[in-house]
């Protein structure tokens, strides 16, 4: 089971039979497939309905240069609002909360959230890491990504793939990030194309697709369905 249809050929080129390769997507919470009321959720998250919302994340542990990213973007006078998820990094969260009074931009600082699917649904752009699960959730939400400091190896390859399909951009440093965000906010056509690219490869029903593949294999090899076994 692979993350995207475009990866099927790469696995086939390594000698794996096409019939054994299924593009299910990385399994994510089924709640990503549930339709969301953006206006209602924006009110619940205390967001301005008239301003684009940029989600800034560093994974569940709040890794990466989040403090510097927030300070740079919030001080630039951009026509947007920031939502920062610090994960379990309470030190970072407290640091950002102390910074807020001195920042001219609108910033919401959150800790660890259990309903990230709702938050991704109401935001227009994400700035953060290119971990497999986070990237899959963002794509399932139709949320374009600006990727910062990918970890060598897996995250670099994820960033290359997402950038190649037009759903993400790799940024290099704080100045590049600021310039790219400014350009993005001023280019509705770019916003539309990146959002459409994210939705095109997003698989909100990936978990169900993976179960279907497993059930098919069980039925083929045992003659029994997964449901009858349970």
Automatic annotation (TrEMBL):
InterPro entries: Glyco_trans_28_C, Glycosyltransf_28_UgtP
Stored Pfam families: Glyco_tran_28_C
Domain of life: Bacteria
Domain Glycosyl transferase family 28 C-terminal: 54-198
GO MF, one annotated term: hexosyltransferase activity
PANTHER family (UniProt xref): MONOGALACTOSYLDIACYLGLYCEROL SYNTHASE, MONOGALACTOSYLDIACYLGLYCEROL SYNTHASE 1, CHLOROPLASTIC
Record protein name field: Glycosyl transferase family 28 C-terminal domain-containing protein
Record organism: Desulforamulus profundi
